[in-house]
Write a structure and sequence with these properties.
Helix 7 runs antiparallel to helix 8. The two termini are 49 Å apart. Strand 18 and strand 19 (388-407) form a beta hairpin. This protein has a 22-stranded antiparallel barrel, surrounded by 4 helices. A 5-stranded mixed sheet has the order 1-7-8-5-6. Strands 2-3-4 form a 3-stranded antiparallel sheet. It has 10 helices and 42 strands. By secondary structure, it is mostly beta strands. The protein has a single domain, classed as Maltoporin, Chain A. Belongs to the TonB-dependent receptor family. It comes from Leptospira bourretii. It is found in: Cell outer membrane.
Length: 799
Amino acid sequence: MTFLFENRSHKKNSIRKPILSLFRTFFSLKALVLSSFLIFSVLFSAPLSAQNQEKNPQTQTGTGTGGTDPAPNPTSKPMEGGIRVTGKKDPRDREILRTPNSISRLNEQDIQDAGINRTNDIDKQVPNFSIIDSGSRNFTYFNIRGMRSIAFSEPAVGLILDGIPLNDNVALNTELYGLENIEVYRGSQATLFGKNFQGGVVEIRTKKPTNVPEGKITYDAGNYKKQETSIYYNAPIIHDKLFFGIAGKSTEREGYLSNITGFYYPNNRPYEIPVEIYKTHPDGRKGKAGRFRLYFTPNDIFEADLQISAESFDDGSLNLVNYLGAKSEREKALLQGCVAMPSNCSKLYGTYINRVNGDRKVYWDYEGKSNVTGNTYSLATTTKLPHTNLKTASAIRKMDIDPITADSDFTTTDQNRSIYVEKATTFLNDIYVESKDKHDPLQFKAGIYASNKITNIDQAREHRSQVYVINDFPGLSAPTREKNLSRLHDKNVSFYTHNSYTFAEKFTITLGARLERQESRLSHTEQAVGISRANNPLGETLVLSDPYTINNRYNYNVSRLIFDYKPIDNLMFFIGFSRGYKNAGYSTVVNVPNRAAFKPEINDTIEAGIKSEFFKGKFGLKYTQFYTETQDFHVVRAINLSQYINLNAELVTIRGYELESFIKPQKDTKIGLSAGYTEGIFNKFHDSVLNRDFNGKWVHFIPKYDIVSYLQYRNEYGIFFRGEFQAVGQMYFAADNTVYSDPYYVINSRIGYETDTISAYLYMNNINDRYYFTSYIDGTFQAVPGAPKTYGFMLTYKI
């Protein structure tokens, strides 16, 4: 087994003619003319900025650059500590309403109400955003509008924490604590943020310290022996000058799986429920994370934000079960069997009950583990120049997966084990200037982003059967490890700019461009390491394939054009055209050099939407439709159990929509509905490994739809209730559309009592205990089940 996971979907009628060719020429002009125009606009914006700054020094509610919250004044008081304060309007909500982009925002109140505790809770609240969980936090992939991250390639959807892009898999599935807000941008953000992300961005901001000391402690206990404690505390060191913040979280729970290592049937009849002799729960998780922060504002011109964070997790074995044992497949077999042989229906039903009780049961000889650490050191600064703000962000990110181990044959026979080790270090720098007066009709942002990432990977399959080793690795004895050793070095430098101009306060044109240079290098060798037949205690190494090195360079040039119209203050229409890309890369587990490299993925998108809010904030509606054509779409394909490559599907089309709405029938009650639909089709895809065409098939690992609706009640006496319905459509796991996850729904509820200092909640998630899958490992019939019914008690104290 190798630790590689990808994404797939289905459709019978292929879309024959691209409709984006009319504006594709615009995006392929290398953006040079546009970039020159935008730089010219930035340089000559100072006089106009100065004039408007004197007229209106308030914070922007406009349309242009987005992506960052207004920096709070550290000398001012924060909003009331009690989360029951509901009358105040968040100014950032106003900005998003006037930004021509499909954005979902969750403020601190929303995060607590929805019970978001880690990154893979976010997608359940956001339309057209799904998280493909591979069974371990080390391999988790974000998916927005079908633009998804897969093994080997750069993330299509990025995570930005306090202005720092974090693009490794560990960061994408981590614990959250001390949060201020979460914003999810859908669609290509190449021209807006420093790091390129073609599918979208999840931007998270934590609590920034001020002159007013504040903090919160949360304790959460539930079934599966769950215990979580999180805390944050911010306070001044020197009034108005220097502030500090600390935050941390510890988490632990028992595993959802039952590994049965001994059982027997009383009468040796398979339809009787077996008696289990011994079982363990190998996928239990525990870990700790922490963050220290210094915020320095020596004067009114300069501020610096220094953060050091660390996380360490032990996630146990991979959360994998046999897909062929899924309840849906058993239900079909039961119905077919009862129709064919009614006399045996009772026995069949007994077998069905037996297997249903074993939904999360596995039978492994070896329980794996998953250890990971991540450390981030970052410094962000802001310098307030006369007419612009100069901002910088620098960081060092170190991530270690050491190791993941798993039973790769998934049987009680000790034949094969998988071992994966990865160590990565990333250096990044982002420097940009942006508008200072947010009411100026001309808004601009221009910057330079550079990154340097070095990754060392040791991916091995340990063969423990002597017969196999003797035949395939002459001179060695079991156990022998078949190892793919890779070193990746990736360097990127890019210039990006995002600018807008508003005419008569109603009509805005936004133009963006990005020029990027990528240099990448792969060094690879494949070895077999084991004990020599001569019983040499030092072992022996066989070179299975000649070492090779590949160097590639790429230039990317993309642009963005958006028109928006605001006929009245609370209503906006927009239409946009954009080109996005996902960087080229290499497979790290293939010994054939000409199959290791894969091309960049390029996508052109047209989207149109409406945003509105009426009746003094009692009703809101956001709706966006999109159509995307993608060239060289990335698809992972297994060559064998030890080698995988990334293929480029020639043409994929993706279309869909997202809807977000709410209504407040009275001051204490809120009803919300979010829905997304995505249809991805392989228009042209020849799989060179299988030598098959998958034209007209749905792209795999894209849920057809997702829905979340909720009813929420909170009154002035502190009573809180939230009921939530979540539904996810069919998702294919294979390019031929033969393996898939059925549609499913879950019901969640939360009830509590809140005061200004103490809040207590009882919660239950997946009340209907739905058994469903979130991912699948091609060629193994192993799938990742979602979480079962969980419940618990949460207590929060505000310092």
